[in-house]
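Deliverable D4.2, example record:
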Amino acid sequence: MAARMKIKDIELLVKELDAEAALKKLYNIREETGMSLDKLIVKYQKKKDAFDKEKARYDTMCVYEKDAYKKGIKIIAGVDEAGRGPLAGPVVAAAVILPQDIFIEGLNDSKKLSHEKREKLYDIIIKNALSYGIGMADEKCIDDINILNATIKAMEEAINKLGPQPELLLIDAVKLKNVGMRQLNIIGGDALSVSIAAASVLAKVTRDRLIAQMHNQYPEYGFANHKGYGTKEHIEAIKKFGICPIHRVSFTKNFVMTKA
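Output generated by the structure prediction step:
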């Protein structure tokens, strides 16, 4: 039976297998039948090499988590935010507890990912996380207490929604004073820790979706294009139309004054 198989049939046979399993299957078929499968083997060897490279990259992002596990810490949450820099909309924070040995292919700092990749990873993280929480501080809160304090408020809200509560927080550069658990602040942590990277994806996707809704309400500002950041397009719109209810007054007042 195997000797009468066509290349197309073999391709279908290994299509749903991971690269390593596919290679093993191809070598077995070649040995049993003597068929020339070099092109397929090269194809899946490249896939395996790419997977191995990605797994190695991912493993380097697990260093902080693995070190904590070795010290007996079992529940670790990554915490990150999105939206500190924009001229409009809330700052959104996320806190995520991942299973200890999970491998999420492609997970990285949300800023390094395409919109499509973030959306896919968002669903994977939500599905597999032991727990996650989202917190936010709107533009009025940002104007009242400043962006740093608003960020801290959003982070603490996200952490408080976790269950169980973590023993250790891995946070990208922001120190929290009102939480009782240990925390480790990691500069550039969204590219160095899988837990923080996961939080960065949830925060970014959540905020982008909110801003997309605001675009429907205030289309003249082009929020769908710039997500509230201070692009030339956005600043020109503010000068032309003034600020709308979701603009941060403390961030935009100079542009409004320019118009006057």
